[in-house]
Structures are given as C-alpha cells and as structure tokens.
Specification:
The protein is of the alpha+beta class and about 675 residues long. The protein is about 25% helix and about 30% strand. The chain is built from 14 helices and 38 strands. The strands form 7 sheets. It has a 17-stranded mixed beta sheet that branches. The protein has a 5-stranded antiparallel beta sheet with strand order 13-14-12-16-17. The chain has a 4-stranded mixed beta sheet with strand order 2-1-4-7. Helix 13 runs antiparallel to helix 14.
Length: about 675
C-alpha cells in the first residue's frame, strides 16, 4: 500500500502502466494513429511543430492528388514519421538527433556532440538518412536494419553501428568530461536552466530532461544539486510570468560543489492586488517521453508561482482516459501541495474532434462522460450534454485550443470552418447562445488571433463568456514546443479579492472578472469598473476608459468595442472617451512580437473580458455579429453531414435540434 499522499496506490499503478506502454511503444504509448499522435512522435526530434507540417503535407499531396490542404492535414496519421523528420531537417542536424548520411560512396556521421560525465553510459537517437537508390543494410547494436532507397529510419544507439561491414566511428557523437556539481539556491522554488556551450542542458538526478518552446532546458525547485561538467556553464533562473530572468556564468571546479545563488526580481505581484492566475488546461500524462507522477506537477506549480493549476484527465485517440485514477481519487478536493497561495485541482477534458474539446474546473465528482467520436464511434451526444453534466457537478466549463486556422475580424465563418476533424471549438456558437458554456480559452497554443476574433463575435452577438486561458501543457512530454513548456506559460487572471479557494476562483471566472495573458499585466477600467461589470447607461452617456500594462514584451495597446478598435497606442497606459449610443462592450488587448517571455509562436498577447455597456436596459446584440453566428450554425450543419459519424438518424437529429434552439435565440436578438 502506498502511503505517499501525492501517489495513492491506484495512481501509482497507473503511472507504472504508462511507463510500460512507453517502453513497449515509444512516445505514442500505442495510441491509434491520428494526426496529433503522428505529430507527437515527430516533434520529439523537431522542437517546433511547424517544421513537421510542410514536408508531411507535401508527402501526402503526392499520394493523394486533389485533396485540399485541410483534408491533407486530417490525414497526417498516414505519413512515415522518420522520413518526414528527415525531410523537415534537410541538411540540418538537430541537437538531439545526429544523422548518418548513407551515400553511394559510404557513410558520413554528422552530429552536435554530447558531453558525457565519466561513468555515464552513452545513448542517443540516430537518423539513418539514405541518399542512394538501393537499399542499405545498417547494423545497430547487433540489430539489422534495412533502410529503403532514399528512405530514413530513426534508431537508438548505445554502442556500435556497422554499414557494409565497416564500423562507423561514433566518437563525434560524444566526449567525456570531468565531473563537478552545482548547488542552485534562490530562496524559493523557481525554474532553472543550466546550459553548456553546445546548448546541452543539465538536470538534477531524477528530473525529466524538459525543453521549452524556445529550446531552453529547464527544471523546477530550490537548493538543488546538479551534476555537471567542469566547464563553462550558463545558469538562468526565473519564476513564471510575474518575474524577470537572472543569469550567471560559472565554471565549476572538477570534483567540487559550486554554490550559485540567484534570485529573479518581480515585475508585478498579482495576488497582492487580489488577482490570481491559473492555467485551466494541463495534462499530467498524455503520451510522451517520461510518464509523470503528481510530484512533478507540484514542483512545476510552485516553481512557476502558478496560483491555480487545473490538471485534466483526457483520452488521446481511443478509450483509455489518462489520469482517470487521479481524477476519481481527488475530484472535489484540493491536491496535497495546495496552500493559501497555490491551488491545484483535478478536472477533465471532454474531447470530440469534430465539435470541440471542453475543459472543466472545480468539479465536485468525476463525470461519467469523457469523450465521444473516437475509433469510428458516434459523434454523440452533442457536447451540450457533457456540458450539462459538468455544470451539474459544479464545473466551470470552457472550450480549449479553440481555432487553428488563421482568421480575421471580418472573415466569414466558412474560413475557420474549412476542415474535417481538427478539434476546433465548433459547437461553442450554439452552446454560448444556450448558456451552456462559461468561457473560451482566448489564450491557447493554437491561433490566438483567430480565437480572439471569434470571441469578440460571440460577445457582440449577446453572449456572456469569460476570457480564459489553457496552455494544454503536457508534463509527460519533454520536447514538444509549447506542450513541453512549463504550465502557466499563459494564464487567466481572475479578480478574487479575498482568500483563494476553488469556490472563490470559480465564482470570479463565472462573473467574467478576468483577463488572459502570455505574460503582460493588463488592467482595464471603464468609469472605474473592471471586466465582468455591467454599466446600465442612458443614450448619450460618456464613459472614460483606461488600460494599463506592465511587461517588457508589450508593443501595442488597444481598446476595442463591438464596432472595432476605439483607440490604439504604445505600452504603459492608454485612455479614451466614448459617447454611448447603443449597447456595446469594451475590451483591452496588448500585443507584442516574439520575446523570451512569450512562448506562443505568434508572440506576446493579452486580452480582457468585457466591461458591458447596456443602454436603457438593453444588452449588446450587434446585428452583424448575430447574423455571423447564424451563418456559423448553417456551415456547422453542413460539416456534420460531411464529416460526422452517427449510428442512427436520431443521433444526428440531436445535434441539429441543438442548433435550431440556438438559432431561435439568435433570431430573437435581431431587430424586430
């Protein structure tokens, strides 16, 4: 019987099972092949997912002429991952993937050499890259591999590689170095990076070798000892988005322990103002290189000073729901490492790849429904049924990673509704009208700009939705762009005012007292009122609006209403006046380009929930936005007929009835 409060017996057994799946199947853990399962394997070797895209689509296009880009993307599961990784890299050598070029004249090894401490065994992945028109036999650690003409294969090497009977000189792959140790101390848990001149990261014993979206190695904790080479190293420390980076260069003495004391400085203290930041979409386990136990989540939450962590159980591509045992054990209770400043809970991600993925925070118990539409099963019931169950269990609900297709403020719905099964939050237009969903992750790992544009259409059409944030970070991934970045790299800050509890944070989310951010602090007031508030005004009333920002990554501030941009200016503070003629809303947006503090590929971003400006009791329902939502429902109906899987006509009818109910709501908001 396990007595560790972080690892109950059922959870310990689950983690052990995930390790056995990883050992047997590799990083995909034996999941059925879908596009994101294929991407998961490829991005272990390619740090950023966009490097995988073009060669994979090119390969599919050659096999399936006539398919659209969206249809090709839906078939990514068919690609040869090893070949695609080779083609995405071209002649480049990844730091974690040396290449053996197989040519008619022989074999050539190319590598970014590892540094190995004395006594540490050698092991690496190796890309076998054939540039010949004939098959090539390669023997790796005694195992024969036949690489097809112009083909590729990724293998693991621990000792010997032989090509055409000749051993390959593996000395460029690694060199030995004398051992030293660093003791890292900040005075409180932090995120640390220890990097050598070749970019190689060094980690404490037992820490997974995690790399973030910028390619930086990292781990969490305080007063940690790290075995390192006795060579020049760079040590960096930070603590999530409310802190700066501190850095030191050090050359530790061989055989000794060198103390490095570094403390990051605060940029702002949200909790001191009554605001608490949370990440509503984090997986402990969901495929990956290193199955994770809850203690890794505890270290990450405290090391990032992430106030609220919502760990979600979810399936990948089949029946198995990862971390279901943890959900069932802890649902309705704070996790053991919670304290007055940090709150962790177990929630769920309900997943349907046709109409969207929904997360829930603050559940009192584990739900029965957890996914639909996988392995050819029916896309039924509609997400609305799952939302009702999650709501009945006390959950605050929202759609995660909502939209992947680039999309602008003036684009029609069919621009974003252009593909088959791609996890987009398609049903949200119906669920929002019927009051079944509470928030939308405007900050996410997909298209932030597209999601913000859809969000503003939804609230302009009369729906009340909070801006939220969920990174979809996966703690079992070590090397997958934003998925292997630390939890909380985007956050939804909610104004709680008093003590932080699951109930007080959930209430703040439901009231829309929120802004979401990749790092900047963003504060909006309208006549002294903040996000979530409603001002009931007479026609012709004047309101004074102000937004302020903190953070070096901000380049532009915007104030927006239902009619578009009201004011724009540089970071710091922006003000405007508005004479109100009809119901509207005010939101603030901060943007910036790529920055070390911003993990999203598009750069820095923050967006507030609205301050609503009602006029003589009437709420905003802009006709253009209402008609846009109606057009969305029409296109969604077509998509269900084209791509949905249903066992009976009645199952499809349940979706269509839901959309008809939503249409009735939107039509009721149109001018008489």
């Amino acid at each position: 019987m396990c007595h560790d409060p972080l690892l109950p017996e059922a959870v310990a057994h689950a983690v052990a099972h995930y390790r056995s799946l990883r050992d047997e199947h590799g990083v995909t853990w034996g999941e059925p092949t879908l596009s994101y399962v294929t991407q998961a394997r490829a991005t272990v070797f390619l740090d950023l997912r966009h490097r995988f895209w073009a060669p994979a689509l090119h390969l599919l296009a050659a096999r399936h002429p006539g398919l659209s880009a969206g249809e090709l993307e839906d078939r990514l599961g068919e690609v040869d991952v090893d070949l695609v990784v080779r083609d995405a890299l071209g002649d480049e050598v990844a730091d974690n993937l040396p290449a053996l070029r197989l040519t008619p004249s022989g074999a050539t090894l190319e590598a970014v050499g590892q540094v190995l401490l004395d006594g540490v065994p050698f092991r690496t992945a190796l890309l076998l890259d054939s540039r010949t028109d004939d098959p090539v036999e390669v023997v790796v650690d005694g195992v024969r591999h036949e690489v097809p003409p112009r083909g590729a294969e990724i293998v693991e090497v621990t000792g010997e590689v032989v090509v055409a009977g000749r051993p390959v000189d593996l000395s460029p792959l690694a060199r030995r170095a004398g051992a030293a140790a660093l003791r890292l101390r900040a005075g409180f848990p932090c995120r640390w990076s220890v990097t050598g001149a070749n970019g190689q990261g060094w980690y404490p014993e037992g820490a997974p070798p995690k790399v973030d979206a910028h390619g930086r190695p990292y781990f969490h904790g305080d007063d940690l000892v790290v075995a390192v080479p006795a060579e020049p190293l760079t040590v960096t420390v930070t603590r999530g988005m409310e802190y700066t980076f501190a850095e030191a260069e050090v050359t530790p003495a061989q055989g000794g322990e060198t103390l490095v004391e570094l403390t990051p400085e605060r940029l702002y203290d949200a909790a001191a103002r009554g605001w608490y930041g949370g990440d509503l979409h984090v997986h402990l386990n969901w495929m990956g290189e290193e199955p994770a136990a809850p203690e890794l989540a505890a270290a990450a939450q405290h090391g990032e000073d992430l106030h609220v962590l919502n760990l979600v159980a979810g399936n990948v591509a089949a029946e198995r729901v990862y971390d279901a045992e943890a959900l069932e054990h802890w649902a309705g209770r704070d996790l053991p490492w919670s304290d007055g400043r940090h709150l962790a809970r177990w929630g769920v991600e309900y997943r349907n790849d046709l109409v969207g993925h929904v997360t829930a925070f603050g559940l009192r118990a584990a739900p029965e429904r957890r996914h639909s539409g996988f392995l050819g099963t029916a896309d039924w019931p509609p997400n609305a049924v799952a939302l009702e169950e999650l709501r009945a269990l006390g959950g605050v609900t929202g759609y995660g990673h909502p939209f992947h297709t680039p999309f602008g403020d003036d684009d029609p719905p069919d621009v974003v509704l252009d593909r088959g099964r791609n996890c987009s939050a398609r049903e949200i237009v119906a669920d929002a009208a019927l009051g079944l969903v509470d928030g939308l992750d405007v900050l996410n790992h997909s298209s932030v700009a597209a999601t913000a544009a859809v969000y503003r259409r939804l609230i302009g059409a009369g729906n009340r939705l909070a801006v939220t944030a969920g990174t979809d970070a996966v703690l079992s991934f070590c090397r997958r762009g934003t998925a292997s970045s630390p939890p909380g790299w985007e956050r939804v800050y909610a104004y709680v005012g008093g003590p932080l509890t699951a109930e007080s944070y959930a209430e703040a989310l439901l009231l829309g007292r929120t802004f979401a951010t990749s790092g900047p602090w963003l504060e909006l007031t309208v006549n002294g009122h903040g996000p979530g508030d409603t001002l009931d005004l007479p026609v012709g009333a004047r309101v004074e609006i102000a937004v302020s920002s903190v953070g070096p990554e901000v380049e532009t501030l915007e104030l927006r209403t239902a009619d578009g941009v009201l004011a724009q200016g540089p970071p710091g503070r922006l003000t405007a006046s508005l004479v109100v003629g009809e119901p509207t809303y005010v939101v603030a947006v901060a943007t910036g380009g790529p920055h070390p503090r911003a993990f999203h590929p598009s750069g820095a971003y923050a967006h507030t929930s609205p301050v609503y400006l009602d006029v003589t009791g009437e709420h905003v329902a802009r006709e253009a936005d209402v008609r846009w939502c109606l057009a969305w429902l029409d296109r969604l109906t077509e998509l269900l007929h084209e791509h949905g899987t249903f066992e009976t006509e009645e199952q499809l009818a349940d979706h269509l009835h839901l959309y008809d109910r939503a249409r009735a709501v939107y039509r009721g908001r149109l001018p008489a």
